[in-house]
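Project outcomes to date are best conveyed with an example. Our students and postdoctoral researchers have been running inverse folding experiments weekly, and each run begins with a structure described purely in tokens. The record below, which covers 818 residues, was selected by the lab manager from last quarter's runs and is presented without edits.
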């Protein structure tokens, strides 16, 4: 039996309350800091609950490393091998049996299980561990499980566990009680040691590790495998150095997680897989780079790439806490103490492609994400873009329903674009090669990562698959025993059909600079053999917005280029703004996306094309091209104030937002315009008003009126563009009798009065008219009465008649009271 004492875990104290909530409310949200024991103690406690009835408990972990480690720890508590009562399943391997009752899975596995069996027959509870990491698959899994509980399985228990997430909105949305556990941690002394301005950060990290290593385990957090290797090369041979990341197999990971038997010193270089769920034995010191590798999505080019970003404060706290498990520890943070971190990491659903999510939900039968529960709903723009791409692939029909092709794509454990590559390869006689390409594009391959030529990567991988056992298992799973036919179609064409938007042509022979069909630019490092090619498929870059460095490309043979262009090139009419000649240019071009093969002038462009050209001119030169008179500028300012007060209901009025929405608010008013000069006739106030709609226009007039009648009877314009906020500029005498200024936006937006002399010069500025009459008017009257003797200056302005006239003119009308 294991010598682990579960009773010593802090979470043990809240287990009775937790089990009561699961029995009476059907679920709970457990808040437990690192070290409480939630990942390994709670699932075992559920097995003995009356409602479990011998059913299985499904535990979701965000990473393969954590899934294996958590399953192994629980198995040791029971004195068993993994695969008996406790088992796990990941995409690359599994250890379960008929006797397994706690099944630890990675998040993507749950989605597959739900799609295959929505009722989750045989499972009594689903546990989401480390939900604060907010992965896309965790959000999707929770949405599907919640619908299953409402429609099919009222008896299915749901437990969501988190260490750092603010749980109020989650618990309220799920309708479940919150149970809180204390953590178990000793104090950790935190110090900051940022690198110097010109210092290599990795060399600085290695120096800090060398200085502190020497007792127990020193855990070093680095963003990726590349950084781990570069730091490792800079460290001395003693104490011994181990590494921990997601590419290791289960036995390698287990060796790192176990503490040395004699408590000997060691250094463990790890990615963020060591933040949660897994426990590395013997840690006394943490050295934290403060960085992590996270996916970043470029919606314009539909590409996700891993980028190095600063971690959140919640991540930093978790990392530091690793040093306080055994006794007082220390954490050295390699960034400045003054640097402010975000409180939590941003949910993945906000910054990633949603193609897989949309396809999964289409197979589920959901075409509108609003039908499901989300802590953060899928962004509308990303959802619609994914739906359009999947419709273009033929995976969805026009109504958003899944097609037969969509089901085939969804049946493969790959993103939809890579699944298309695999299916196309099967259909065209290259099943194994296409599957191998998909594996290389989907998984990191140590030793191949720095090779930018995908054809050479493929050749090396197929020649020695034993060097990459994880990738080999993926290949076997995708291709089985299928072999390529000798007469099969070239891989160039299969790849080009799957990734046509990534076709690229060299801008100048031998320059290494390329233009992609999607409009982006890319460059090869000098001396790269691929630079001799005129045409490439550029499959990955470093993500720079202009001329990103090519990380991965496939060289296209001349015959393949000709075939691709014949299949993909389209003739179309298009316009653009020629900023040098200051005119709209219309042409008929033959092109593949942004790659123009030939062009000729278009003699009679359609009104629609001219309109597109004018919109392009506006994007190039800015909104100053438009005839902004005072009325339209004031209307824009009023709408901008409403957006500031109610951003969810009113459009933004800054230049970038208006330029982004030109097609919506301005395009209908460009009918008949052929040149920029013609646009000077566009009624901008009418265009903005029509964009708002009648209901919002009425609200705008009530909340922020353009004019206001003052006591003299004259209607005075309110200046919403004034510095400091809306301002009413009016002659002082016209406000006699007014005790207060008008209220704007139900009192949410202050109005200032600029009281003018009879000559129209500022006399006083006030936001409280009544107070001015009481406290400021006497001094103003004394100062101006002699300079403007023809105008009334009564002692009591609140009882005097308001007027814009002189005393004589006022008397001639019989209305002089002052």
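After processing, the design step wrote out the following sequence:
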């Amino acid at each position: 039996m294991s010598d682990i004492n579960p009773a010593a875990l802090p979470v043990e104290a809240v287990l009775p309350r937790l089990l009561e909530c699961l029995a009476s409310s059907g679920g709970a949200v457990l808040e437990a800091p690192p070290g409480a024991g939630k990942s390994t103690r709670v699932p075992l406690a559920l097995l003995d609950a009356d409602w479990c009835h011998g059913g299985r408990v499904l535990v979701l972990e965000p990473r393969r490393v954590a899934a294996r480690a958590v399953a192994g720890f629980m198995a040791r508590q029971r004195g068993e091998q993994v695969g008996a009562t406790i088992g796990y399943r990941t995409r690359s391997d599994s250890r379960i049996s008929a006797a397994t009752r706690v099944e630890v899975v990675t998040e993507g596995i749950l989605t597959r299980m739900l799609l295959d069996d929505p009722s989750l027959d045989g499972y009594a509870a689903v546990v989401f561990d480390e939900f604060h990491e907010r992965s896309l698959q965790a959000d999707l899994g929770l949405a599907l499980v919640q619908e299953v509980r409402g429609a099919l399985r009222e008896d299915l228990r749901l437990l969501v566990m988190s260490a750092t997430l603010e749980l109020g909105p989650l618990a309220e949305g799920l309708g479940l009680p919150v149970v809180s556990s204390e953590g178990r941690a000793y104090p950790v002394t935190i110090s900051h040691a940022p690198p110097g301005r010109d210092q290599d950060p990795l060399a600085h990290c290695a120096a800090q590790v060398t200085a502190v290593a020497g007792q127990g385990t020193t855990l070093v957090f680095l963003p990726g495998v590349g950084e781990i290797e570069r730091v490792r090369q800079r460290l001395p041979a003693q104490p011994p150095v181990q590494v921990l990341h997601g590419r290791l197999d289960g036995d390698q990971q287990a060796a790192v997680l176990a503490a040395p038997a004699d408590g000997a010193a060691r250094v463990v270089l790890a990615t963020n897989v060591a933040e949660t769920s897994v426990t590395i034995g013997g840690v006394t010191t943490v050295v934290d780079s403060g960085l992590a590798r996270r996916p970043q999505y470029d919606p314009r080019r539909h590409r996700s790439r891993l980028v190095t970003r600063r971690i959140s404060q919640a991540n930093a706290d978790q990392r530091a806490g690793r040093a306080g498990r055994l006794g007082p520890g220390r954490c050295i943070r390699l960034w400045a103490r003054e640097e402010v971190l975000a409180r939590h990491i941003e949910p993945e659903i906000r910054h990633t492609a949603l193609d897989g999510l949309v396809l999964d939900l289409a197979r589920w039968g959901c075409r509108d994400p609003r039908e499901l529960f989300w802590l953060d709903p899928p962004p509308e723009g990303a959802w619609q873009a994914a739906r359009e791409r999947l419709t273009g692939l033929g995976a969805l029909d026009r109504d958003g329903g899944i097609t037969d092709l969509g089901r085939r794509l969804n049946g493969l454990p790959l993103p939809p674009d890579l699944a298309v590559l695999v299916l196309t390869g099967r259909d065209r006689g290259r099943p194994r090669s296409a599957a191998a390409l998909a594996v290389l594009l989907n998984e990191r391959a140590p030793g191949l990562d720095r090779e930018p030529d995908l054809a050479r990567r493929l050749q090396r991988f197929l020649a020695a698959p034993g060097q990459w056992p994880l990738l080999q298992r993926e290949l076997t799973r995708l291709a089985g025993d299928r072999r390529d036919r000798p007469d099969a179609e070239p891989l160039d064409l299969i790849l080009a059909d799957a990734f046509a938007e990534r076709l690229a042509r060299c801008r100048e022979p031998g320059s290494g600079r390329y233009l992609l069909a999607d409009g982006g630019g890319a460059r090869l490092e000098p001396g790269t053999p691929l630079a001799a090619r005129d045409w490439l498929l550029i499959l990955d870059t470093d993500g720079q917005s202009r001329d990103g460095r090519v990380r991965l490309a496939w060289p296209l043979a001349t015959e393949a280029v000709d075939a691709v262009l014949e299949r993909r090139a389209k003739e179309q009419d298009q316009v653009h703004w020629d900023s040098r000649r200051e005119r709209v240019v219309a042409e008929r071009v033959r092109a593949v996306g942004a790659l123009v093969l030939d062009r000729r002038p278009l003699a009679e462009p359609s009104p629609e094309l001219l309109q597109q050209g004018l919109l392009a001119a506006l994007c190039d030169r800015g909104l100053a091209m438009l005839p902004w008179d005072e009325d339209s500028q004031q209307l824009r300012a009023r709408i901008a104030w409403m957006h500031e007060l109610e951003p969810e209901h009113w459009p933004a009025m800054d230049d970038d937002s208006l330029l982004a929405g030109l097609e919506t608010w301005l395009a209908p008013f460009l009918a008949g315009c052929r040149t920029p000069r013609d646009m000077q006739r566009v009624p901008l106030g009418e265009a903005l008003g029509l964009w708002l709609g009648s209901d919002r226009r009425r609200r705008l007039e009530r909340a922020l009126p353009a004019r206001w009648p003052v006591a003299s009877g004259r209607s005075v314009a309110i200046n919403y563009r004034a510095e400091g906020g809306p301002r009413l500029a009016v002659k002082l005498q016209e406000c006699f009798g007014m005790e207060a200024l008008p209220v704007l936006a139900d009192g949410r937006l202050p109005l200032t009065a600029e009281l003018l002399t009879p000559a129209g010069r500022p006399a006083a500025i006030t936001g409280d008219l009544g107070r001015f009459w009481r406290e400021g008017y006497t001094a103003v009257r004394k100062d101006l009465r002699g300079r403007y003797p023809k105008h009334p200056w009564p002692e009591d302005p609140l009882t005097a008649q308001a007027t814009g006239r002189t005393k004589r003119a006022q008397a001639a009308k019989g209305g002089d009271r002052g």
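The first strand starts at residue 27 and ends at 31. The radius of gyration is 34 Å. The training component of this project remains on track.
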